[in-house]
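Provenance

Sequences were taken from public entries as deposited. Structures were produced by running a predictor on each sequence independently, with no templates supplied. The record for Beta-xylanase from Micromonospora sonneratiae is shown for reference.
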Amino acid sequence: MNTDSTHPPGRNRRTLVGALTATAVAAVVTLAAAVAVPTLADAATTLKSLADAKGKDIGFALDPNRLSETAYKNIADTEFNLVVAENAMKWDATEPSRGSFNWSGADQVANYATTSGKRLYGHTLVWHSQLPDWVSNLTSATELRTAMVDHINGVAGRYRGRVTAWDVVNEAFNDDGSRRSSVFQQRLGDGYIEEAFRAARAADPTAKLCINDYSTDGINNKSTAIYNLVTDFKARGVPIDCVGFQAHLIVGQVPSNMQQNLQRFADLGVDVRITELDIRMQTPADATKLANQAADYRRVFQACLAVSRCVGVTTWGITDRYSWVPGTFPGQGAALIWDDNYIKKPAYDAVTEALGGTVPSPTTPGPSPTATTPPPPGGCRVSYTPNTWNTGFTTEVVIGNLGSSAINGWTLTFSFTAGQQVTGSWNSTVTQSGAQVSVRNAAWNGTIAPNGTQNFGFQGTHGGTNPTPTSFALNGTACTTG
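Predicted structure for Beta-xylanase:
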C-alpha cells in the first residue's frame, strides 16, 4: 500500500460537526488568539492571489450546504480560485433513478462558481462508489453501456462550457496495478474507460478530461498502470488531457519521488493536478505534528510548482470541522489547513510561502538565545535534506533531542561552504552573516521533548553547487548528523 492509505467507498458522505479535538488544535496554535476570518480586504495576501500570480489553480471541495456559515463562505470566497463539488455532482446525487436527474446540489455548486468568479472542476462522471442501486443491478452489458453514456451526456452536457475539467473515470485501479472489479469492469471490460472518455469529449468538447485515483502520488504499481493507460490512449488518439492525483496523505509520508512522478506524466503531454489533498495525523494534534504537517503541505505544493504542467492543487475541504477523515480513519484527522474553529494552521503559512508569499513574524517572540537550555546528556542529532534546482534550493531540517530531558528554546548554527544565501524560512527565524547561519525556533516549536524532534526549513540561492554543511551546533553543543 502506498503512503496514502486506501479509503473505503462513500468516504465523502459524512457531515462531521466538531468530531476533532478543537481545543487541542487551538491550544497549540497559540499565535492565533482569536478566530480570524478573512475578508475581501485581505485579498492581497490570500492563497488565491498568490496562485493567480503563478497562473495556478488553488481549489477546494465544496459542500453547498455550508455556504450559509459565515466563516466557511468567507474563506471559500477569498482563498480559492477553483471549486469542485464534494458530493453534489456524483451519480447518486445527479441521477438517483434512471433518466430522472436532480440538479439541485450540482447547480448550487456551478452557480457559486459563476457568481464568485471561480473555475468549476467536475467530479465525477463514472465511479464505482456512490452509485445508485439501479446502475449496479443492470446485468446487460448493452444496458449498462447505454446508461453510462446517457449519464455522461446528461451531466457533462448540462454544464457544457462551464467546467474547466472533468474527472471522467475515478478510482479504476487496484494498488497492484490491476483493474478494480467494479460493475463497469465486470460488465463492459477494459474498454469502458475509453468509452467513457469518448462520450465525455462528445458531451463537452471544451472541458479537459482527466482520470483520477488515490495512492498514485509516488511511482508505484498503481501509478504505473495509469501511466501505461495514458501512454496507450495518447498513442491511439483516445481523448485524455489530464491525470488527477488525489493525495490523501499521512503526515511524514509524502512520497520522495512525487515530483518525479508528476513529471513523467507531464512528459506524456497531459496536465497533472493534485485533486483531493489532505494530510492526516493521529489526533489530538500537537505543535510537532502540526509543524510536520506544514512541512508536508509545503512539499506537495513545491512538487506541483516544479512541474510546469501541474495546473494546481485542490484541498478536499476547508476546515477540519467537516473533514471526511475521522469518520473513515478513527483516531486520525486534523488533515486540512484550517482547524475546527477556522483558525489557520501552520500548514496555511507553509502553503503561503510555497506559493511565494511572506508570513508575518509571530506576535509572540521566541525565547532569546540567553534563555535556551543546552542539549542534555545524550546530545542532539540533525537531519539536513536539501532539494536543489538550477540556482535555487529548499532545505528541510529535523533536530532530534537524544537526551532524557527537554530542550527549552533552541538555536542551531552551521556554516555554508559554497556561498549559499538564505532568502526565506518557515517554522524558524534565520539570520546569516557571511557563511555563518543561525536559526532560532519559532514561538510554537521551542521545546524539544526527550527523544523528540522539531523541524524547520528554509529556501535560498546558490551559485551552481549546494553542498550540505558538515557540522551543526545546538545551543552551542555539537550535534551528530544523519
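The first strand starts at residue 57 and ends at 62.
Confidence is low (pLDDT under 50) at residues 1-44, 363-370.
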